[in-house]
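Minutes, project check-in
Item: structure for the 110-residue chain
Input as provided by the requester:
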Amino acid sequence: MAGAEHHLVRPDHLTQLDEAMAAFLSADEPTMRPYIDQFVERGWAHTTDDGTVALTDAGQRAHQRVSEQSGALRVRMMECLSPEEHTMLMELLQRIATHLDALAVETPRQ
């Protein structure tokens, strides 16, 4: 995508990644570690002994590529909506996300 802004991904500790991705984790998959290990194997990330995870240059390039592709796809998906419909959709999705966050607080992860 021409003019796409490049965002650097800052290093995070594995526990921060697990917290950020908590909605996608389960008792069967309680951590992002297997996915981080796959990124390390591909040369996209490296980890330190203290559990910090950072993208390599190759990982930064892969992140940029995926960001550009998903941005272009998002634009294409929304072509069928008017600006008003798009605004309404975003408001409804935000309301659902807020409700799911409240449900997550009520129902501890198992």
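Outcome recorded: The first strand starts at residue 12 and ends at 13.
No further action items on this chain.
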